[in-house]
Specification:
This protein is mostly helical. The protein folds into 2 domains: 9-195, MFS general substrate transporter like domains (Growth Hormone, Chain: A, Up-down Bundle); 203-397, Growth Hormone, Chain: A (Up-down Bundle). The chain contains 15 helices and no strands. It has helices at residues 9-37, 43-71, 73-91, 97-125, 131-159, 162-184, 202-206, 208-220, 223-238, 245-265, 271-294, 301-332, 339-346, 348-367, 370-397. α8 packs across α14 (348-367). The longest helix has 32 residues, at 301-332. The model is unreliable at 194-202 and 401-418 (pLDDT under 50).
């Protein structure tokens, strides 16, 4: 499978994604231990600070995306990549809780804005028919980069010294400087909105179909804290499966997305196929939840482990189907002259899932057990089904920008594998 696209803007976008993902992978596996073991912060302080940071960042993504529309997405993306590098560099000098929070807010704000600006840049430089395929390559590259970065961060964890941790922050900052340099090599598309136009017109706030679509996407994105937090707790506390399976399932997910996300996205070429992909992802996630729930039935360790692997395979297939469909819809249903602003708004769904998901899922699954899994699966299925009517509603409000037909309510066969 070829992950890199043909030479051109798409390849530079993928290369920039790879650079920043490797740096972030190293940062993610070391930052919490650095701030607890070296700076002396408590886990509760770190959790509260990061929650605040990502809440601010998600709100900032919309105006920063609008800035990309007004000033041009390439220049905005380059500046935000440099701002991210500076924010990571600020962690090198954070010796108190206020300094940590300020640095974290700057980091999350720059990251959210950069994501919106890069989406607008992709929309401006890549043909609409190729966007989902390029986004699939970006996702596969991001997962591969995170895995490489996590391995590099593991070297710092093994050393366990202050200098090793600081080297990771410096490496992540350098990675974003590289990202900025690669983005600067891209063509500079013209700004699509006049400089004097308002940044937050009422149109976005009153665009109820797109807002509902963003909310449904946030619900479907609960699969992320499900994999990273709720499922590990479930394995350790409610099953007899071996503890090492926690990391094994994470590796399985990462490798599968790296290898098969591009292939999965090939079937998504427009609004109709996007809705079908999202709808099938919900049914697949329902099946995954039912399989996970079965491990509560006092199964022997090896059997529970095999069942969990089966659930994780369904999980990652559902994840890849949802990702491909949601990317396509987020572009197709956004006005061409406000792509950055709309992509920033759509990206808030991820922040909502990351912020509310941990408490919601641990309460639902660890406390309720099997009924919680069934309810969660039903929520995934219902939210994915609702995407179809909402997408058609949105299409009717912008007939000049979106094809007239959007996914009839015809079920699509579940794919055998990605």
């Amino acid at each position: 499978m070829r992950i890199l696209p043909a030479p051109g803007p798409a390849r530079l976008l993928v290369a920039a994604q790879l650079g920043s993902s490797v740096g972030d992978g190293a940062y993610y596996v070391t930052s919490a231990l650095y701030f607890t073991a070296v700076v002396g912060l408590s886990p509760a302080q770190i959790g509260l600070g990061l929650t605040l940071a990502w809440a601010v960042g998600s709100l900032a993504g919309v105006p920063l995306g609008a800035l990309a529309d007004r000033r041009g997405p390439r220049g905005t993306a380059v500046l935000l990549a440099l701002a991210t590098a500076a924010a990571v560099g600020a962690f090198l000098f954070a010796r108190s809780y206020p300094a940590f929070v300020l640095s974290a807010v700057a980091y999350a704000t720059a990251q959210c804005g950069l994501a919106a600006a890069r989406q607008a840049l992709l929309a401006a430089l890549v043909d609409p028919a190729e966007r989902t395929g390029v986004l699939a390559r970006l996702q596969a590259t991001a997962n591969g980069g995170l895995a490489v970065g996590a391995a590099l961060g593991g070297l710092a964890l093994q050393a366990g010294t202050r200098g090793a941790y600081l080297a990771v922050f410096a490496f992540d900052a350098a990675a974003f400087l590289l990202c900025a340099g690669l983005l600067l090599r891209l063509p500079a598309p013209a700004a699509v909105r006049a400089a004097g136009a308002p940044v937050l017109r009422a149109g976005l706030l009153r665009d109820r179909p797109y807002a509902v679509l963003t909310l449904l996407n946030a619900v479907l994105l609960l699969r992320m804290p499900l994999l990273s937090l709720a499922l590990p707790l479930w394995i350790v506390r409610r099953t007899d499966a071996p503890g090492w399976l926690v990391s094994g399932l994470f590796v399985l997910n990462t490798v599968a997305v790296t290898l098969f996300q591009v292939r999965t996205a090939r079937a998504v070429t427009g609004p109709d196929s996007a809705v079908r992909a999202v709808r099938s992802s919900g049914w697949i996630m329902l099946a995954a939840c039912l399989v996970y729930a079965a491990t509560a039935a006092a199964l022997p360790g090896p059997v529970a482990g095999a069942v969990l692997v089966a659930g994780a395979v369904l999980h990652v297939i559902g994840e890849m189907r949802h990702s491909a469909g949601s990317w396509q819809l987020s572009f197709d249903l956004a006005p061409a002259d406000r792509m950055g602003q709309y992509q920033g708004f759509f990206g808030t769904g991820l922040a909502v899932a990351r912020t509310l998901g941990p408490l919601l899922l641990t309460s639902l699954l660890i406390v309720w057990g099997i009924p919680g899994w069934i309810l969660l699966g039903a929520v995934f299925a219902a939210a994915s089904w609702a995407v179809g009517p909402v997408a058609r509603w949105a299409a009717r409000t912008r007939p000049a920008a979106v094809p007239a037909t959007v996914a009839a309510d015809v079920p699509e066969p579940v794919p055998a594998a990605a």
